[in-house]
Every structure is written in structure tokens, then in C-alpha cells.
Amino acid sequence: PVHLLLSSSLSLSIIISSRLSSHTRYRPSSLSEKGYEIKMRLKWFSIVFCAAIFLRDRVSSALLPFFPRTSHSSVLPNTSAAHSTTWNGRRMHFSGAYREPVLSSSIQKGEISTQIIDDTNRSSHTKTATSIISSHLQSASLAQSKKDVPTQQNEVEYAERDLIQWVQHYRGRSTGEVEEGPELPDAQIFSDVIEGLLALPSSFTIGTNNENEENSVSPSNITGSEINDGKEMNDQIRRTLLGKGTVHHHILYSESSKSDRATRILDLMESFHEPTGPLYDTLIASHGDDALQCLSILTAEKDRDDDAIMNSKDSPYYQRAWKSAKSALDILRRSEELYHETGQSPSRLPSVSSYVTTMDVWKALAVGAEVDEDKKNEALEVVRNLRQRRLKVYALDSDMEAGAERSFGYNVLPPGVWVSSMTVEEVLGFAINVLRESVPSYQRKIKDPSKIGTWHFNQLIFDLANCPQSFSGPLAQDLLDYMVYTVKKTTPSNRSRNRKKQSAPHLNVPKPNVETINGVLKAWMVTPNYPDVARHAEAVLAKLAIWQSEGILWGVSADTVSYNTCINCWKESGIKGAAQRATEILVLMEDESTTIIPDDISYTTCIGAWADCSSRDPNAGRHAEEILMRMHNRNASGDDSAAPRPTARCFNAVLLAYANGRQRGGGKRALELLRFMERLHSEEGYTDLSPDTYTFNIVMKALANCGERGASQKANQLIKRMKVSYEKGDTNLKPDLQSYNTVLDAFSKEGDALSAESFLLQMLNRGDDLIKPNAYSYTAVLTAWSRSDDKAKAVRRAENLFNDVEGRYAAGETDFRADTSVYNALINCWAKSGERRALYRVTQILSLMEELGLQGGDSNVQPNSRTYCAVLDTLARSKNYKAYNKSLEILQRMEDFHSQGYDSVRPCARAYSIVLSTIARSRRKSKAIKAQELLHRMESEYRGGNSACRPNVYSYNAVLNAAAFSGKDEREQEEAFKVACLTFDELRMSDYLQPSDVSYGTFLKAIKHLMPESEVRDNLVKGVFRKCCRDGLASDFVLKETSALSSPDLYHSLLKGVTNDYGNLPKTWSANVR
User: Fold this and answer.
1) Hey, how many other C-beta atoms are within 10 angstroms of the C-beta on 304?
2) Cβ atoms of 788 and 794 closer than 8 Å
């Protein structure tokens, strides 16, 4: 209370001093004799001001144990929307109170909503904390791709620390120790930090002891090859359970490995959220790898020194291995508990790989505990318990005497207690009826119920796969579970117990076989709109392994088709990490300990999974190429006669991954792979590896998309090679229209319009109907002209091309006319030309398209949102005084056509943003209010269901810009400042947006242009700048505007010791600047 009282006194002294300062500034000459009195009052309040500061600091220190501080608070007075302040030259008071006549300029009026810099906004806190952690993790990912281990470790540590502090602050707020702060971190933040930790290199320091030297390699110096060697060693341990090594390694482990740190984050996560099964699986795998790595080094120690066997109990490797194994076991237990507590949700199901990994580790511990019999028995007991726990999670209910399944054991079939009382014929008939209700044309019937067997169930399961429905996978799974149920019910032990209860002399037992398993997997693969299809498919193989171990399905084993289907499920899922999981299954198939041999489909599907995610993962092309090289090396080594040869489909999938990835160097790697493919075909006898037209098209696409230097010329050379090969008789390399359009696209992206147009003429002159230019061809050339430096020439050639299209169509030389894409390219060319006639011409083209496409019903030339955006962009670039009204008119036409049912002209955020930018550049009065109204209309459209209209940060920045550059009229500037404050408030409080550095800089510019110099303005600048720094958005633009707003002393005090205006800033100040 004392602290608050003194703070209020301090604020009061500032207010009165500000009033007296402005009183002396604006007093008339008749008040000159009062100058001394005013001077004395200023001196008095200066004394009060200093005393208040002194007492506040002293009392605050004394009362700190009783009134603990919260997070950093704003430096500005709390003037929210309900309690805003109005200031002028004579008085500062709360709105709604008595106002004296204003004697100063009305520019000094305006309502300030200091929620702009109020840190009590929990949503803003949460978004800021999330963005900072995400920024650290993105930097770590980038460092990982560059193999910069120290930077990766530092960035992940920052993210880990920030998340822990966030959780501690949230807990303090929940208990009342802290009043304000961010909301609870969501589950994705925890998952991302855990993934970042587990992506770190090995937590151990590994070295090799030779006879004459001992070298230690720190984790930061471990190369990629050494990490791969470690992974190979772990794989060898999994296969041979601690096979003997030949080299002596030593390890200096950290007390806090990456797995332990990730587990601590998981502990925090479990306090607030329910982690998913894959997250537990990943942590278990990490702890398992740690344990196996330690045991492998311990084995090498024993190999080198027999005395080490007696001292293995005291070895740090041994102790660390046990610690990691116990951690893996504990995480598995927690995963099982969550699975049961959440009603056995499929997303919480522990994967079979987690059980296998944990059991492998404990088996390895049992083998390693040669001397300690107690430890060995303990490890073996854990393995036995794990096997039982796995059966409990995956197996069906074994209580056959009750004659009931678990009530939740089926998805589509009736509850288990009913199914157990149904005959095989009734169950099969029920499933057939379910399918017939959704597919009326399905007419399969049961002709002879007495002969129902495996074939009938398999046929129905494959019918479910061939008629994809939302229940195809669940119903196929139910049929498989029921078949296993009948087999278990008729085992010898159960038959002897139930012999007296059976009245029928014969009982049909449809026993599943490998075709049944593959049919169920295929049904899951084609099931639409069903969550976690890939995990369900993988669970089928897990259940099969359990049924085999129980002896229920003895002799029924998954084959290559089964695993290929599972890989394809992951490929088609499109979820994050799907390609990585598909690769793990492929590695399992490659393992020597398995009897499953991957074929060319296995590799092609896995590579295709990386190609599908290449637009999101910059390393997808490299991963796909690694799989291809592994496939080639396995075949070339001759060790495995069944290893498949790489096929053209495999190479094409890798090339597609590079083409879709659009990463620097992707085109070069695609060319090198093409040469390698040709060498294998011509020199090593890979007869089925001949590159075809599709292969060359992908390579040219990779060159065009990846921005390689001279990409267009290289693509042109490739198509010339194709022509020569075709003329020599290679029919597989005949260039098609896609080939020519890809070369045109390469010319277009480089802005080489002359070459593009020359190439188009070659296509016209060849006289081949198969490669006649189409709309895409002309669009590419027009786009190339729009990127040309000679804008005047560009519009002339563009108009000539457009007239050529229309003329050839009118003369019957082509069967296509200019469509919407061609019109859009022509408009875009005019929009970028800067010509005086541009505005007239684009509006003329738009009117023609509206007349033909919207009013005339020609769908080929119907304008779309891109059309209107290009026209609006032309208006925004022009200096025509009519641009303001014309842009609003065109936007209104868009809205009207959309309301009439033309979905192609749906107003979008870009269209609104361009109009807002046009308004901001105009010199109209009250343009800030008009921009604010348009922004609110945009928000209303979005809330009404038009997702394309969701405002973005550019929309808000345009409104801020309109306010910052409003006219010099006092009333207009007052209104503009209100608009700027409210708009910035709305941006900070938005539930899907956050300010950028441009937002802060533009708002500071508005303060500079619209607010007079005063202590209040300095306080506002301080608050905005400090909030900007905490958000990590202090860019050069923000620094420039802050410097222009404040005095040199204030500016340098804000920079906190930075030596110059634009450099040496703390990294956190600009961490989120893009």
C-alpha cells in the first residue's frame, strides 16, 4: 500500500509539473509578473519529485519481502479503454471529468489506450513467449542443417530455459504469488522443445584409446560420420545383443543427458497436458539408445581388459546403462497408464517398437550382468513382465469362460457380449449389410452358410478395401479381431472346457492368414477421414506379432506386402514425421535379423514419402537420396542376392523431392543423379534404368524451381539432348508439351523474355500438334515480359502476344483461346509497367472479363481474385487522383459478384490490403477513419465465414500508415491518433496475429507526427520501445523512429549501453525480426 501511495504521488508530481510547464509555455504576456511564482512552484514540485523517487525506492526495498514484484510492468499510466486520458496544454485529466476550455492546439487532444504497452495482456504474453521459443527452435534446426553443433546446443538450451521459466511463472500466477503473466503453454510447445532436445548430438563424449595416445572428442566436435557410426553400433547391438568389439572406447557422460533433459520437460508437460503415444515412443527410443551405447563401450572394455569384467559393476558405463534402462521402463509405464486413463484412445497407444526397444535394453543388461547374478535375474524378470504387459495392452480379452469380449473391443460390430453369442454366419451377414447400406450396388450373398470359412471373410475384407468408406478400416479390423477370437475359443484347452456346452457337432473356424492381414492393412490405407490411420495399420502388425508369440496364429507371418502397405499408410497420411517413420519401417525390413526382404516398391514408397514432404522439409531430397544410395549399395555389394536394383521410379521419386524442395543446390544434385542414372544404364547393365521423358522433365523442373545459375540454358540443353536421342530412335525421350513448358517456365523465372518468346516461336513452327503451345505456354512468356527491365517494350510485346492468341483462335489455327490465366498475365504486365495508360488498360481488360465471364457466362475468362488484385495493385502504384475512389469501387464490385454466387471472385485479404495501402497513400481527409472502417469490414467478413478475408499484419500496418500520414488539420490528426492507438491495440490483442517490427515502427512514426513533444510522449515512447524489445522486434526501422522521437539522452538510456545506433544490440531484442 505504501508503495502504491508513493507511486501515485510520483505520478501526481509529474502531472502537475507537466501542467505548470505547459502553463509557462502558453501563458499570455499579461501573466509575465507571475513568472517568479511559477518558477518557485516548479522548484517545489521538482523537490517533491526527487523525494518521491527516493522514498519509493527505499520503501520498495524494505517491503519487497512482503509485496514481491511481478513481471516487468509498463512505464505508462494505466489508461485503458475504460479509463483513458486526455491531455492538452492546461490540464491532464480522466475522460468524462470536467474539461476546461482548451487554450492550446487541438492536436494535443486524443485518447490513448495504453493497453498498447500494458504487459498485463495474457494473450500477448503467451504469443510472445511462444514466438521466442519457436524462434530458438527454428535457429537450432537451421544450425543442425549446417552442422553447427554449438549454436544448435545453445538455441535448444535457450528454448528449454524459457519454457521452464514460463511454467514456473504460470504456477506462480496460479498460486497467487504472481498476479499476471502468460497463459499455460500448449502441448505443442512442450513437444517441440522435446523434439529439439532429442535432435541434439549424443550427450556422451566418446573417444578412442590407442596404444600411444588417448583422444577425447567432445559432443560439439562429433562429425556426422561419427554419429552414423554410433547408430550402426547400436543397430549391431540390437542384432547381436552385445557382440564383441575390437576397438577400445571410453565415455565421459554428462549427469544431464539430452534424454534426461527431455524427460524433465515431459514431467512438466504431464502436469498440464496428456502427451501423445509417439512422444513417449520417441523418449523411450532415446533412453534405449543411451543404454545400448553405454553397454557397447562396456563390452569393448571387457574385450580389451579381462580384469574389467570383475569391475563392471562399478563402471560408470554400467551404472549409466541401468539408469537409462530404468528411465525407459518408467516412461513406458507412464504411457500405459495414460492409455488406460484416457479410455484406451488410439493416439495414446504405446507402440510395439517401445516394448521391443525396452525389452532389448533389459535383455542386453541381462547379458552384460555376467558376474552379478541378482542384476541378471532382475533384468530377466523385467523382460518377462514387459512381455505380459504388452500382451495385456494389445491382446484381446482372454476370459473365454465368460464368453464375452471387452465391450469396447469392436468399432462397428455390436458390443463384444453380443458378438460372442452370434454365429459366424450372423457376424459375416451383419458386416455385409453394413457395407450394402452405404454401397447399394454391393450384392455379395452367403450361398452355403455351412461352408463359411477364411475365404469368405477375406473376400469381404478386400471388398471393404475396394469400396473405400469411413468404416472400411474399423470394420475390417473388427472382422480380423473376431476371427482371432474364434480361433482362441477353439484352442484345445478351451474346447475341452467347453465340450459339454457345445451342441453343434461342427464349428466353423475362419482362421486368419497372411491375405487376411494384408486385406485389413489395405482397408486401413484407403479409409477416408479417419484419424491415425497409419498408427492403426502399424498396430495390426504389432498384434500379429503378439498372436504369433501366444501360438494363436502360429505360422501366419507378415510378408513384404504387409510392410509395404504400412509404409504407404505413413506416406499417404501427410502428417509431420510420416516420412521418418516410413524410413524406420524400411530399416527394420533391411535388418539381417528379419526374414522380410524389401523390394523395389518398399524403397520407392519410402522415397515417395520424402518427396511428398519436400515442400515442408528442406532436407527431404538428401534423405531420399540416402535411401536410394543404400538400395544401390545393397545390390551392388552382392552380399544379399535378393536385394532389389534401383528402378527408374526410385530415381524419379528422388528427383521429384529435389524439384519440390526448391532448395539451393537441388538442381545441381538432380543433374548429377541423372548422369549417375545414365551411367548405370549404359555401363553397368541396368537395362530397366533408362531415363525417360518424365525423368528429364523432373530434372528441368528442379533446375527451374531451385534457382540454379543458368538454369534456363541447362534446361534448354536437356531438351535438345532429348530431341537428338529421339531422332536417333529412342522413343522414350520424345519431348512433350510438359518438357517445352518447363523450359519456358525456367526462362520466365529468370526474366529472359526474348529467349522465352523465341522458344515459343520454335514450338509454333515445329508443326507438331502434340507440342502446340497452350494457355500455360503463353502465360509463361507474358510473365517473363512482366519481369523484364524494359517496361515500355514489355507491354507492347505482351499486347502482341495476346493478340496473336486471339488471332490464331479466330483463324482456326489453335483450339484454345486466351483464358483467365492469360488475361491475368497481361494485366500483371501492365500493372508493373508504370505506363500512363496502365490504369486505363487494366480496367478495360477487367470490364471485358466481367462482361464475357460473369455476365456472359463464359467460364474460361471468368475473372478471379488474382485478376482483381492485379487491377487493384495497378491502382495502388498509380499516382492518379481517382485511385482512391476507383479502388473502393472495384472492391465493392468484388463483394457484389461474390454475393451473387461467383465464388471465384471471393474478396481476399490481399485485395483488402491493397485497397488499404491505396487509402494510406492518398491525400484524402479522414483517410485513417476510412481505413479503419475497411479493416473492421474485413474482420467482419472473416468472422462471417470467409476465411480468405482474415486480416493479416500488413492490413493493420496499412491502417497505421494511413494514420501516421494524415493531413495537418488539427481535428483530423486528433482522429488519426485515436485510430492509430485503437488499431495497434487490436493488433496486440488479436487471437491469431501479433505485431511485426514494421507495426511498432509505424506506430512510433504516428506518435512522432501526431503527438506534441512532452514528457507524456517520452513515457509512451519508452513503453512502446521496451515492449518491442521484449517481443524481439527491435529492427533498424524501430531504432530509427525511436531515435527521431526522443532526445539523445533518452535514446541512449533505452539502448542500455549499446555503442552505436544500429549495431551491437542484444540478440533477444531482434530475435523475431524477419
Assistant:
1) 15
2) yes
Q: What is the DSSP letter of 93?
A: E
Could you tell me the three cell numbers for 130? 511462444
Strands 214-217 and 92-94: unpaired
Decide: helix, strand or coil at residue 100: coil
- The tens digit of pLDDT for each residue in 119-143 reads 445 555 667 788 888 888 888 888 8
Instruction: Report which DSSP code applies to 421.
Output: T
Instruction: For residue 60, count other CB atoms closer than 10 A to its CB.
Output: 15
CA dist., res. 659 & res. 661, Å (int): 6
Burial of 762 (0-12, 13-18, 19+ CB in 10 A): exposed
pLDDT at 928: 92
Q: Tell which residue, 388, 416, 390, has the closest CA to residue 402.
A: 416
HSE of 476, CA atoms in CB hemisphere, 13 A: 33
Taking the C-alpha atoms of residue 508 and residue 492, their distance in angstroms, rounded to an integer, is 15
No. of helices (H) and no. of strands (E), the chain: 42, 5
Whether the CB-CB separation of 832 and 791 falls below 8 Å is answered with yes
Strand partners, 187: none
Is the distance from CB of 709 to CB of 666 less than 8 angstroms? Answer: no
Nearest to 884 by CA among 843, 841, 924: 924
Closest listed residue to residue 111, CA positions, set 73, 89, 91, 82? 82
CA distance 166 to 134: 14
DSSP state of 286: H
Residue 724 CA to residue 781 CA, distance in Å, equals 25
* 92 phi, psi to nearest 5 deg: -120, 125
For the stretch 337-354, pLDDT in tens is: 888 777 666 667 787 778
Please answer whether residues 899 and 888 qualify as being in contact, where contact means their C-beta atoms are separated by less than 8 angstroms: no
Is the Cβ–Cβ distance between 1007 and 1040 less than 8 Å? no
Distance CA 925, CA 932 (A): 13
**Which residue type occupies 591?**
D
Residue 934, pLDDT score: 93
What φ, ψ does residue 554 adopt, rounded to 5°?
A: -65, 130
Task: Quote the CA–CA distance of 699 and 714 in Å, as a whole number.
Answer: 10
| DSSP bridge partners of 250 | 207
pTM score, whole prediction: 0.64
pLDDT digits (tens, 9 = 90+) for 1030-1046: 888 888 899 888 888 87
d(CA 55, CA 76): 20
Q: For residues 372 and 311, what is the distance between their CA atoms, to the nearest angstrom?
A: 11
| Cell digits of residue 763 | 514450338
d(CA 261, CA 194) in angstroms, rounded, equals 8
Q: Contact, 86 vs 111, CB < 8 A?
A: yes
- Structure confidence by residue, pLDDT tens digits, 170-201: 777 655 555 555 678 888 889 899 988 988 88
Give residue for cell 504431464. Answer: 270
- Long-range pairs of 983-988 with CB within 8 A, sequence gap ≥ 24: 983/932, 983/935, 983/956, 983/959, 984/116, 984/956, 984/960, 985/81, 985/113, 985/115, 985/116, 986/956, 987/953, 987/956, 988/115, 988/116, 988/121, 988/124
Q: Cell digits for 810? A: 479466330
Q: How far apart are CA 447 and CA 200, in angstroms?
A: 62
pLDDT for position 504: 41
Q: How far is CA 803 from CA 774, 823, 830, 898, 976, in A?
A: 14, 11, 15, 30, 48
**DSSP calls for 853-864:** IIIS--GGG---
Which are the contacts of 853, defined by CB distance < 8 A and separation ≥ 6? 820, 859, 860, 861, 862, 863
Place of cell 498408427: 535
Mark the ranges of the chain whose per-residue pLDDT is less than 70: 1-126, 173-182, 203-256, 300-314, 343-347, 368-371, 391, 394-409, 416-420, 491-508, 1056-1064
